[in-house]
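Dear colleague,

Thank you for sharing your sequence with our group. We've completed the structure prediction you requested, and as agreed, I am returning the results in plain text so they can be pasted directly into your records. Please verify that the sequence below matches your submission; if there's any discrepancy, let me know and we will rerun it promptly.
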Amino acid sequence: MSAETIDSIATPPKISTAKPARWQAKSWFPMFLIAPSIVLILFVVVFPLIYSFYVSFTPYTLLKP
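Please find the predicted structure tokens below.
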């Protein structure tokens, strides 16, 4: 009967060298499909927000042309 230690039985875990799935070329295709809607949302939401911030610090009146 031989005595085996845990060190001789255990093997180190294998480290994966593959890139995660999100970095593969196929995963960028959905981003290209979503990009136009993101640009539209930015134009509809962010542009008026920035413009209103700009107008709030300028002497802008609606009564005088």
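Summary note from our side: The radius of gyration is 30 Å.

Kind regards,
the structure core
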